[in-house]
Write a structure and sequence with these properties.
ArAA_b-elim_lyase/Thr_aldolase, 339 residues, binds pyridoxal-5'-phosphate, Aspartate Aminotransferase, domain 1, Aspartate Aminotransferase, domain 2, alpha/beta, Aminotransferase class III-fold pyridoxal phosphate-dependent enzyme, 14 helices, single chain
């Protein structure tokens, strides 16, 4: 099976497993796991942030960040496609008792102008207090579209001016960096919080880190405990994250190349109507009216290709560490023959 369903399906490599099995561990709730501490220091430093917190998932890092940056009755401004809104089970309401104002960005990318129009007037009791902006980079539902730091700078200035916080859902931030050439170190200047997934393109089995100021991360650690995310000998997992940061970042451009090769094939297929621009490792395409997405998924499954529906007539393919060049060639052959 060639599995394009998600970049979360990767299995740890032999070398990653070796790093995990030989990790030095301790009780992380006591702050005594040196491998977790090393991962937190390394990732904070990489992005020019003061501190970091290792968490079981990206949903948890995002939800903790939103809790840190809002008060009950506040409002979060984000794009309507945002993972924090669509795919975190309604957690913003549950965890933070905050409402959400949704914008209609360009493939999920919003601008300072769009945000400014939706900021509620301060001190008017009718309106929730606009306290946080959340950006996603890359944007999953935008077909892996990216912001550059140039796009982000005006949003940062607006948030500063309005006294709002800015959080980045950087589940696939390393894909964005590979595509734009921006440096992670420069990201720290712009954001109050950054979530980074280790278990997407980077190929670790578990884990995300939340980056922020020392003060933010101190409070975040408390929220993580409350959510049941305080882990003990988590260094076995953190070791996979360190290994991934050291060995699986530079190769991401291969995933992007593979995605564009697949897209070149897909666009010529009779049942494909249109395809979103492919900027990173995600391919989202629309089917002709006659073709139903869930049917196509079943048909391709019978031929050895796994992929996912992304709407009634939309399909998503994601390339990743376990999709080798030869699997891409195989998949291209299968797709070309499919009617
Ligand atoms: C995967 C993902 C997350 C985090 O998801 P978890 O499965 O909880 O790790 C957050 N944001 C985006 C855009 C994602 O794709």
């Amino acid at each position: 099976m060639i599995d394009f369903r998600s970049d979360t399906v990767t299995k740890p490599t032999e070398h990653m497993l070796a790093a995990m099995f030989t990790a030095k561990v301790g009780d992380d709730v006591f702050g005594e796991d040196e491998t977790v501490n090393a991962l937190e220091e390394k990732s904070a430093e990489l992005f020019g942030m003061e501190a970091a917190l290792f968490c079981p998932s990206g949903t948890m890092t995002n939800q903790i960040a939103i809790k840190c940056f809002t008060q009950p009755l506040d409002e979060v401004i984000t794009d309507q496609t945002a993972h924090v809104y669509r795919y975190e089970g309604g957690g913003i309401m549950f965890n933070s008792a905050a409402s959400v104002r949704l914008l209609n960005g360009d493939r999920g990318r919003i601008t300072a102008e769009m945000i400014e129009d939706e900021i509620n007037p301060v001190g008017n009791v009718h309106h929730p207090h606009s306290s946080l902006v959340v950006l996603e980079n890359t944007v999953n539902r935008g077909g892996g579209s990216c912001y550059t730091l140039e796009d982000i700078e005006p949003i940062y200035h607006l948030c500063k001016l309005k006294g709002m916080k800015l959080h980045l859902d950087g589940a696939r931030i390393f894909n964005a960096l590979a595509a734009t050439g921006d440096k992670p170190k420069d990201y720290g200047k712009y954001f109050d919080g950054i979530s980074v997934c280790l278990s997407k393109g980077l190929g670790a089995p578990v884990g995300s880190v939340l980056l922020g100021s020392k003060e933010t991360i101190q409070y975040a650690r408390r929220v993580r405990k409350v959510l049941g995310g305080g882990m003990r000998q988590a260094g076995f997992l953190a070791a996979a994250g360190i290994y991934a940061l050291d060995h699986h970042v530079e190769r991401l451009s291969k995933d992007h190349l593979n995605a564009s090769l697949l897209a070149d094939t897909l666009i010529d297929l009779p049942f494909v109507k249109s395809i979103m621009p492919v900027d990173t490792n995600i391919i989202i395409f629309e089917l002709n009216d006659k073709k139903d997405a869930s049917h196509l998924v079943e048909e391709l499954k019978d031929k050895g290709i796994l992929c996912g529906t992304f709407g009634k007539q939309m399909i998503r393919f994601v390339t990743h560490l376990d999709i080798t060049e030869s699997k891409v060639s195989q998949a291209i052959e299968i797709l070309k023959k499919h009617h």
